[in-house]
Specification:
By secondary structure, this protein is of the alpha+beta class. The chain has one domain. About 30% of the residues lie in helices and about 25% in strands. The longest helix is centred in the middle third of the chain and has 16 residues. The chain is elongated. It starts with a strand and ends in a 9-residue tail after the last strand.
Length: about 55
């Protein structure tokens, strides 16, 4: 489940994720996926960077 938490902040709820290590692995995978994505707007490539954290 993904929810908007603030202006530019989102929360991703990972049901059943009770391991700190697995939470950081999943957070890093999401970060890599977002940062490898490219969006084209008016023939301009836009890339994204994000910061992530985890709470168990």
């Amino acid at each position: 489940m993904v929810c908007r938490f603030g202006g530019e902040e989102f929360v991703v709820y990972l049901h059943g994720m009770c391991s700190k290590t697995l939470s950081f692995i999943k957070a890093d995978a999401i970060k890599q996926l977002v940062e490898s994505s490219v969006v084209m707007v008016d023939k301009v490539k836009i890339k994204f960077t994000i910061s992530v954290g985890a709470a168990v």
